[in-house]
UniProtKB/TrEMBL annotation:
Entry protein name: Undecaprenyl-diphosphatase
Pfam families cross-referenced by the UniProt entry: BacA
Subcellular location: Cell membrane
Catalytic activity field: di-trans,octa-cis-undecaprenyl diphosphate + H2O = di-trans,octa-cis-undecaprenyl phosphate + phosphate + H(+)
Chain ranges passing through the membrane: 44-62, 71-90, 96-117, 174-192, 204-225, 237-255
UniProt source species: Rhodocytophaga aerolata
Function field: Catalyzes the dephosphorylation of undecaprenyl diphosphate (UPP). Confers resistance to bacitracin.
HAMAP family tied to this protein: Undec_diphosphatase (MF_01006)
Miscellaneous remark of the record: Bacitracin is thought to be involved in the inhibition of peptidoglycan synthesis by sequestering undecaprenyl diphosphate, thereby reducing the pool of lipid carrier available.
Amino acid sequence: MNVIEAIIMAIVEGLTEFLPISSTGHMIIASAMMGINEEEFTKIFTVNVQFGAILSVVVLYWRRFFQSFEFYLKLFIAFIPSAIFGLLFIDIIDALLENVVVVAVMLLVGGFVLIFIDRLFNNPENELDQVNHKKAFTIGLFQCLAMIPGVSRSAATIIGGMTQKLSRKAAAEFSFFLAVPTMFAASGYKLLKDYKYITIQNIDTLLIGNVVAFIVAMLAIKFFISFLTKYGFKVFGYYRIALGLLLLILFMMGVDLEV
Protein backbone atom coordinates (compact mmCIF):
# COMPACT_ATOMS: atom_id res chain seq x y z
CA MET A 1 0.00 0.00 0.00
CA ASN A 2 1.40 3.39 -0.98
CA VAL A 3 0.44 6.78 0.43
CA ILE A 4 -2.14 7.55 -2.28
CA GLU A 5 -3.87 4.22 -1.70
CA ALA A 6 -3.80 4.87 2.05
CA ILE A 7 -5.44 8.28 1.57
CA ILE A 8 -8.16 6.74 -0.60
CA MET A 9 -8.81 4.06 2.01
CA ALA A 10 -8.87 6.69 4.78
CA ILE A 11 -11.37 8.83 2.87
CA VAL A 12 -13.59 5.78 2.42
CA GLU A 13 -13.32 5.04 6.15
CA GLY A 14 -14.04 8.62 7.19
CA LEU A 15 -17.03 8.94 4.88
CA THR A 16 -18.64 5.62 5.73
CA GLU A 17 -17.81 4.84 9.38
CA PHE A 18 -20.71 6.79 10.83
CA LEU A 19 -23.12 6.45 7.90
CA PRO A 20 -25.40 3.38 7.83
CA ILE A 21 -23.75 1.94 4.72
CA SER A 22 -20.94 -0.24 6.18
CA SER A 23 -17.43 1.18 6.38
CA THR A 24 -15.83 -2.28 6.54
CA GLY A 25 -17.73 -3.36 3.45
CA HIS A 26 -16.63 -0.30 1.52
CA MET A 27 -12.99 -0.68 2.51
CA ILE A 28 -13.04 -4.36 1.52
CA ILE A 29 -14.41 -3.32 -1.87
CA ALA A 30 -11.92 -0.44 -2.22
CA SER A 31 -8.91 -2.58 -1.34
CA ALA A 32 -10.03 -5.31 -3.76
CA MET A 33 -10.46 -2.77 -6.57
CA MET A 34 -6.97 -1.34 -5.95
CA GLY A 35 -5.44 -4.81 -5.80
CA ILE A 36 -3.98 -4.37 -2.31
CA ASN A 37 -6.42 -6.66 -0.52
CA GLU A 38 -3.97 -9.51 0.02
CA GLU A 39 -1.31 -7.42 1.74
CA GLU A 40 -1.06 -8.02 5.49
CA PHE A 41 -0.52 -4.31 6.09
CA THR A 42 -3.80 -3.53 4.29
CA LYS A 43 -5.68 -5.73 6.75
CA ILE A 44 -4.22 -4.01 9.79
CA PHE A 45 -4.61 -0.58 8.15
CA THR A 46 -8.31 -1.26 7.51
CA VAL A 47 -8.91 -1.74 11.23
CA ASN A 48 -6.45 0.73 12.76
CA VAL A 49 -7.39 3.68 10.56
CA GLN A 50 -10.50 3.72 12.75
CA PHE A 51 -8.46 5.45 15.46
CA GLY A 52 -8.78 8.66 13.45
CA ALA A 53 -12.53 8.26 13.15
CA ILE A 54 -12.81 7.61 16.91
CA LEU A 55 -10.98 10.84 17.67
CA SER A 56 -13.42 12.81 15.52
CA VAL A 57 -16.29 11.80 17.82
CA VAL A 58 -14.37 12.79 20.95
CA VAL A 59 -13.42 16.18 19.47
CA LEU A 60 -16.87 17.02 18.07
CA TYR A 61 -18.76 15.95 21.19
CA TRP A 62 -16.13 16.59 23.86
CA ARG A 63 -18.50 18.54 26.13
CA ARG A 64 -21.00 15.68 26.11
CA PHE A 65 -18.49 12.85 25.94
CA PHE A 66 -16.57 13.82 29.08
CA GLN A 67 -19.38 13.62 31.59
CA SER A 68 -20.71 11.43 34.40
CA PHE A 69 -19.69 7.94 35.48
CA GLU A 70 -23.24 6.83 34.70
CA PHE A 71 -22.77 7.78 31.05
CA TYR A 72 -19.62 5.67 30.79
CA LEU A 73 -21.34 2.80 32.58
CA LYS A 74 -24.08 2.79 29.93
CA LEU A 75 -21.47 2.73 27.16
CA PHE A 76 -19.66 -0.13 28.90
CA ILE A 77 -22.89 -2.13 29.26
CA ALA A 78 -23.66 -1.57 25.57
CA PHE A 79 -20.10 -2.61 24.66
CA ILE A 80 -20.18 -5.94 26.57
CA PRO A 81 -22.15 -8.01 23.97
CA SER A 82 -19.82 -7.16 21.07
CA ALA A 83 -16.76 -7.81 23.23
CA ILE A 84 -18.02 -11.30 24.13
CA PHE A 85 -19.20 -12.21 20.64
CA GLY A 86 -16.05 -10.77 19.09
CA LEU A 87 -13.77 -12.93 21.22
CA LEU A 88 -15.89 -16.06 20.70
CA PHE A 89 -16.21 -15.76 16.94
CA ILE A 90 -13.05 -13.91 15.91
CA ASP A 91 -11.99 -16.61 13.41
CA ILE A 92 -15.40 -16.68 11.71
CA ILE A 93 -15.46 -12.89 11.55
CA ASP A 94 -11.98 -12.79 9.97
CA ALA A 95 -13.11 -15.34 7.36
CA LEU A 96 -16.19 -13.28 6.49
CA LEU A 97 -13.99 -10.21 6.04
CA GLU A 98 -12.45 -11.95 3.05
CA ASN A 99 -15.72 -12.38 1.14
CA VAL A 100 -17.03 -9.49 -0.98
CA VAL A 101 -20.17 -11.47 -1.87
CA VAL A 102 -21.16 -11.56 1.80
CA VAL A 103 -20.76 -7.78 1.82
CA ALA A 104 -23.00 -7.47 -1.26
CA VAL A 105 -25.78 -9.60 0.22
CA MET A 106 -25.71 -7.75 3.54
CA LEU A 107 -25.77 -4.40 1.74
CA LEU A 108 -28.94 -5.52 -0.02
CA VAL A 109 -30.65 -6.81 3.12
CA GLY A 110 -29.71 -3.74 5.12
CA GLY A 111 -30.87 -1.48 2.31
CA PHE A 112 -34.40 -2.86 2.39
CA VAL A 113 -34.46 -2.53 6.18
CA LEU A 114 -33.44 1.14 6.00
CA ILE A 115 -36.13 1.93 3.43
CA PHE A 116 -38.87 0.87 5.83
CA ILE A 117 -37.29 1.61 9.21
CA ASP A 118 -38.83 5.07 9.58
CA ARG A 119 -42.32 3.60 9.13
CA LEU A 120 -41.66 0.83 11.63
CA PHE A 121 -40.34 3.12 14.37
CA ASN A 122 -42.03 6.49 14.29
CA ASN A 123 -40.57 7.42 17.66
CA PRO A 124 -41.23 10.37 19.93
CA GLU A 125 -38.29 12.70 20.52
CA ASN A 126 -36.74 10.64 23.32
CA GLU A 127 -33.20 11.81 24.05
CA LEU A 128 -30.02 10.22 25.36
CA ASP A 129 -30.79 10.80 29.03
CA GLN A 130 -33.65 8.31 28.67
CA VAL A 131 -31.26 5.46 27.86
CA ASN A 132 -31.17 3.17 30.90
CA HIS A 133 -28.98 0.11 31.47
CA LYS A 134 -31.44 -2.31 29.86
CA LYS A 135 -31.82 -0.16 26.75
CA ALA A 136 -28.05 0.25 26.50
CA PHE A 137 -27.55 -3.52 26.63
CA THR A 138 -30.21 -4.05 23.97
CA ILE A 139 -28.50 -1.55 21.66
CA GLY A 140 -25.27 -3.42 22.32
CA LEU A 141 -26.89 -6.66 21.16
CA PHE A 142 -27.88 -4.97 17.90
CA GLN A 143 -24.27 -3.85 17.47
CA CYS A 144 -23.20 -7.51 17.33
CA LEU A 145 -24.96 -7.80 13.96
CA ALA A 146 -22.29 -5.51 12.53
CA MET A 147 -19.71 -8.27 12.92
CA ILE A 148 -21.06 -9.52 9.60
CA PRO A 149 -19.31 -7.39 6.92
CA GLY A 150 -21.78 -5.21 5.06
CA VAL A 151 -24.28 -4.89 7.91
CA SER A 152 -22.92 -1.53 9.20
CA ARG A 153 -22.22 -0.92 12.88
CA SER A 154 -23.80 2.51 12.60
CA ALA A 155 -27.03 1.18 11.06
CA ALA A 156 -27.31 -1.69 13.54
CA THR A 157 -26.86 0.49 16.62
CA ILE A 158 -29.09 3.32 15.35
CA ILE A 159 -31.87 0.85 14.58
CA GLY A 160 -31.28 -0.69 18.00
CA GLY A 161 -31.71 2.75 19.56
CA MET A 162 -34.90 3.39 17.63
CA THR A 163 -36.37 0.10 18.88
CA GLN A 164 -35.77 1.53 22.35
CA LYS A 165 -37.88 4.61 21.51
CA LEU A 166 -35.01 6.99 20.86
CA SER A 167 -35.39 9.66 18.22
CA ARG A 168 -33.30 9.27 15.06
CA LYS A 169 -30.90 11.98 16.22
CA ALA A 170 -30.50 10.57 19.74
CA ALA A 171 -30.04 7.03 18.39
CA ALA A 172 -27.37 8.26 15.97
CA GLU A 173 -25.51 10.15 18.71
CA PHE A 174 -25.53 7.14 21.04
CA SER A 175 -24.20 5.10 18.12
CA PHE A 176 -21.33 7.61 17.72
CA PHE A 177 -20.47 7.45 21.43
CA LEU A 178 -20.64 3.65 21.49
CA ALA A 179 -18.26 3.56 18.52
CA VAL A 180 -15.45 4.93 20.71
CA PRO A 181 -14.96 1.96 23.08
CA THR A 182 -15.98 -0.56 20.40
CA MET A 183 -13.62 0.66 17.69
CA PHE A 184 -10.85 1.38 20.17
CA ALA A 185 -11.02 -2.22 21.43
CA ALA A 186 -11.13 -3.69 17.92
CA SER A 187 -8.27 -1.50 16.70
CA GLY A 188 -6.20 -2.11 19.81
CA TYR A 189 -6.67 -5.88 19.60
CA LYS A 190 -5.69 -5.91 15.92
CA LEU A 191 -2.65 -3.77 16.66
CA LEU A 192 -1.45 -6.07 19.44
CA LYS A 193 -2.08 -9.16 17.33
CA ASP A 194 -0.45 -7.98 14.10
CA TYR A 195 1.93 -5.22 15.19
CA LYS A 196 4.79 -7.01 13.40
CA TYR A 197 3.35 -5.88 10.06
CA ILE A 198 3.82 -2.21 11.02
CA THR A 199 7.37 -1.22 10.15
CA ILE A 200 9.44 1.94 9.95
CA GLN A 201 8.70 1.94 6.22
CA ASN A 202 4.88 1.99 6.55
CA ILE A 203 4.12 3.59 9.92
CA ASP A 204 3.95 7.03 8.28
CA THR A 205 1.34 5.64 5.87
CA LEU A 206 -0.79 4.53 8.83
CA LEU A 207 -0.42 7.92 10.55
CA ILE A 208 -1.37 9.82 7.38
CA GLY A 209 -4.40 7.56 6.98
CA ASN A 210 -5.58 8.30 10.52
CA VAL A 211 -5.23 12.06 10.03
CA VAL A 212 -7.26 11.92 6.80
CA ALA A 213 -9.90 9.65 8.39
CA PHE A 214 -10.20 12.09 11.33
CA ILE A 215 -10.86 15.11 9.11
CA VAL A 216 -13.26 13.34 6.75
CA ALA A 217 -15.16 11.67 9.62
CA MET A 218 -15.78 15.03 11.30
CA LEU A 219 -17.36 16.36 8.11
CA ALA A 220 -19.36 13.17 7.61
CA ILE A 221 -20.80 13.24 11.14
CA LYS A 222 -22.00 16.83 10.75
CA PHE A 223 -23.60 16.02 7.41
CA PHE A 224 -25.21 12.81 8.64
CA ILE A 225 -26.92 14.28 11.71
CA SER A 226 -28.39 17.14 9.67
CA PHE A 227 -29.48 14.89 6.80
CA LEU A 228 -30.89 12.16 9.05
CA THR A 229 -32.97 14.61 11.09
CA LYS A 230 -34.56 16.07 7.95
CA TYR A 231 -34.88 13.11 5.57
CA GLY A 232 -34.47 9.83 7.45
CA PHE A 233 -32.85 6.63 6.14
CA LYS A 234 -34.39 6.01 2.71
CA VAL A 235 -31.58 7.48 0.61
CA PHE A 236 -29.02 5.31 2.41
CA GLY A 237 -31.25 2.28 1.84
CA TYR A 238 -31.45 2.90 -1.91
CA TYR A 239 -27.69 3.42 -2.08
CA ARG A 240 -27.01 0.13 -0.30
CA ILE A 241 -29.35 -1.76 -2.63
CA ALA A 242 -27.78 -0.24 -5.75
CA LEU A 243 -24.25 -1.05 -4.57
CA GLY A 244 -25.17 -4.56 -3.47
CA LEU A 245 -26.82 -5.33 -6.82
CA LEU A 246 -23.83 -3.95 -8.72
CA LEU A 247 -21.44 -6.20 -6.79
CA LEU A 248 -23.60 -9.29 -7.35
CA ILE A 249 -23.91 -8.53 -11.08
CA LEU A 250 -20.13 -8.15 -11.37
CA PHE A 251 -19.65 -11.41 -9.49
CA MET A 252 -22.07 -13.28 -11.78
CA MET A 253 -20.24 -11.84 -14.80
CA GLY A 254 -17.07 -13.50 -13.57
CA VAL A 255 -15.31 -10.43 -12.18
CA ASP A 256 -12.96 -11.45 -9.37
CA LEU A 257 -14.22 -9.67 -6.27
CA GLU A 258 -12.76 -11.98 -3.67
CA VAL A 259 -10.33 -10.58 -1.13
